[in-house]
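Retro notes (design track)

What went well: tokenization of the new backbones is finally stable.
What didn't: we kept losing track of which sequence belonged to which structure.
Fix going forward: every design gets posted as structure first, then sequence, in one message. First example under the new rule, 79 residues:
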């Protein structure tokens, strides 16, 4: 699987593009969306599923050495 192909699939997926836009708007350092966000999309495309596998949640992973207060994490979770 090539990175370019996965990028094209993500770019064509409105839900994933919205999730990326929201994540970017948080201006967090060193972040990524992980787990099923990419895996489910690749699985669905490779198996030619007509209906996408539901994303029950989206894992936003980040590291911010300046903001270590657990309350900040809870605030981000509500967005």
């Amino acid at each position: 699987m090539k990175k370019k192909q996965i990028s094209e699939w993500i770019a064509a997926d409105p839900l994933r593009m919205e999730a990326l836009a929201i994540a970017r708007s948080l201006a967090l350092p060193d972040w990524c969306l992980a787990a099923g966000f990419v895996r489910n999309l690749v699985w669905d495309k490779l198996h030619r599923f007509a209906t996408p596998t539901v994303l029950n949640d989206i894992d936003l992973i980040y590291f911010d050495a300046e903001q270590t207060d657990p309350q900040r994490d809870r605030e981000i979770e509500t967005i």
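Added context from the reviewer: The mean pLDDT is 91.
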